[in-house]
Amino acid sequence: MDLGRNVAADTAMTAAQSATTTDTVTTTSASDDDDEDWDSTVLSSSFTKEPEHRYELHNEATGQTVILEKSTLLGRKPSRNLPEGATSIKLADPTRTISRNHAAVSFDKDGNLWLEDYGSLNGTFLIVDGEESQVVKGTPVQVSVPCTVRIGDQFFSLDKAQ
């Protein structure tokens, strides 16, 4: 009978050790990704398709006009480390509400225009027919022109370039 109890005790102890080992192996800190260096964020090479159209992004308040003719990272001081075929453009930001790497414009294989927020503090929004909708980080949104794009608190009209 003692042998039976020892086997049962050994089995329970082995199961407990296994569960502890498994917990130790699979447990990770939620803060592992918190220290990610956003200064080195780059556009994926899938965003480097040449568009079939050229677009104009214009901020009447600052007088800045940006021509979008390839995938572009927009920001207050955007990264220069980009895949071949993409570019970055510094947006005038008198109110400092635009993030360093704020948003990206890209084109799909059919030349359609897409907008993606890059985890900005003050957000990226599309305004179409008076309705404002937020562009959520990591979820590119297809853009129909003409429309208004709000980056931080700066408003840009977006239309096809002449």
UniProtKB/TrEMBL annotation:
Keywords: Phosphoprotein. Residues 72-126 form the FHA domain. Pfam families: FHA. CDD domains: FHA. Gene3D superfamilies: 2.60.200.20. InterPro entries: FHA_dom, SMAD_FHA_dom_sf. Residues 1-41 are annotated as: Disordered. It comes from the Bacteria. Residues 8-30 have a biased composition (Low complexity). This is FHA domain-containing protein. It comes from Bifidobacterium catulorum.
